[in-house]
Amino acid sequence: MVVKERIPSSLQRKKMAAAVSDILRMTFSLLMLMLLMLCMKAIKLEAQSGLLARDEVDALLEIATQVGKKDWNNNVDPCSNETSWVTPTSSQRPMFDNKVVCDCSFPGGVCHIVSMFLKGQDLAGSLPKSIVKLPYLKNLDLWANYLRGNIPPEWANSKLEILSIAVNRLTGSIPSYLGRISTLKYLNIQNNMFSGTVPPELGNLVNLENITLSANNLTGELPLALANLTKLKELRLSSNNFVGRIPDFIRSWKQLDKLEIQAGGFSGPIPSSISLLSALTELRISNLLGDGSKFPNLEPMEGMTYLMLSNCNLSGSFPRYLTGMTRLKVLDLSFNRLTGDLPTNYDSLISLEKMYFTRNMLTGPIPNWIESRNTRYEFDLSYNSFTESHSATTCKETLNLFKSSWGGNYLKPVECLPDYCSKDQYSVHINCGGPQTTIGNTIYEADDEPGGATKYVPKGEVWQLSTTGHVWDIRPSADDYIAQNKSILRMNNSELYTNARLTPLSLTYHMRCLVNGKYNVKLHFAEIVMRDNRSFYGLGRRIFDVYIQDKVVLKEFNIVKAAQGVDKVYIHKYTALVTDRELEIRLHWAGKGTTTSPKIGIYGPLISAIDVESEFKPPNKGKRKRLIVAGAVVLPLFLIFILLSALWWKGYLGGRKSRDP
């Protein structure tokens, strides 16, 4: 049987064509819709590309309110690099930094904030809790403002790696939840008013490489948990009130490169485990309390560049291995009890620039290599017991030999000065740091000779000036030794306070040729550098000690507190006894106070003028001269009168013959 193929009718063909047409139209419409959606999405992405995420824009508005910042331009995108968001640096405002840094490399071109610098702006609000709403923020720097309060608990949930809130007026204890920012590598809270103990939770910051807690009011012992910070490279604990010894667990910080503990409150001795920190290139320890100790073993630290062990009650001889530290630039062993002589061979100290052996008990001859080096090198050997030398030509501006051979004997003559006085002195008046000036009937001698790190150059017979120390961490400047007033002075006798003498460590005024007896001493002070306004310029604390005749007369002295403000005068009066024709006034920085406000390097003693007047009246030389002249005239006349009277009485002048009848 043959099957014939069935051919669709024309009606069926029309129906099939219509169906295909409908399918094509639907497919085309769907494709157009998809294309339209893709275009709209592309347009939306294009609109967002290079712009900050909206939630972070809102967070910035909150942060501005919390810190008190009012100059951000909210009409432009924060990632646009517009000047209110990224301000160019200026030499006129070196502390100022205003910068919001964005990262626009995220998928879709959306930007996120990764760094924020708000430095030197006097922001007077509080620490912004809304930074936790910036999930990509890694670096927050609020250095040098006027922020108050404490660290917000919200910060514990941040991902910060670098945090600086130094030079503000933050108070309270260091919060334990700070230890939950596990990503933190750098922490700086110095120059605030934090108090209490260091929380052991900081030991959880195992990624921490740099921590600075200096210039606060921290107390107690360091917690053992800090031994966990094995990645630590830099630690600064200066100017606090810690107790106990420097902990032995510092041995755990094998990668430590810099260690600074100046006047931290710790007691000696320095732990022997410090010898395990062979990576140290900078070690600064000063003003340890308690009993003394032998010099620690620092021989493994071959890369040592800056070494300070000042006022640590160290005894024993000078370590010979120090002469092999070829990279050593600064060596400060001042105010200890080191004995013995100095090595004669320092050929390996090819990098040495400054050396301080002030106030030790070193003996023997001063090595020739010290005296023969040129003035580029600065050495201080003052107040020791070296073999007495040397001619006046030995006294150089960069070699301080003041009382370098005195051995504690006040009767010995001072180096580079004659051992006699041309005349007796009953008063001394000095305009410290300034030119000669006259106040009433008193002439204040000029004291405007530029200072220096190791300077003693006797300029006059009656008084001399010895300065010791340099400002660490900055380049040397003439402003390190003479201060100039920063504002108009309105006190009486302002000529005495327009300038002042400064020192980063120790400053001595030595007066001689005084007649023995009691003297009234007046020390004039006025703080003309630091400010007390509502600004980070007012957050500095200048603290130092004052000695007269080697006795402490002012301990941890603060000029601003004593005078009740800046640019105000405080005069300290003291009665001193002179028994060896010499009077000595010494000002000393013992590591307390701040070193970074109003700028880095502002610290150390400051004095404006000195008055020294005897309590007893000096002899009236004019009256004495008149009496001598009168006596020289009257005595011969009297003798002539006696002689004539005797001749008359004997009759040689006719008197007796006329009386006989």
What are the key terms here?
single chain; 37 strands; 661 residues; non-specific serine/threonine protein kinase; serine/threonine-protein kinase; 14-stranded mixed β-sheet; disordered C terminus; 25% strand; six-stranded mixed β-sheet; alpha/beta; 6 helices
Structure annotation, total helices: 6
User: How much of the residues is beta strand, in percent?
Assistant: 15-25%
Radius of gyration: 39 Å
Percent of residues in helices comes to 10-25%
Low-confidence stretches at least 5 residues in length (pLDDT < 50)?
1-7, 38-49, 656-661
What shape does the CA trace take? elongated
**Class inferred from helices and paired strands:** alpha/beta
Number of strands: 37
Largest sheet: 14 strands, mixed
Q: Mean pLDDT, rounded to whole units? A: 88
Termini separation: 222 Å
Strand order of the largest sheet: 1-2-3-4-6-8-10-12-13-15-17-19-21-22
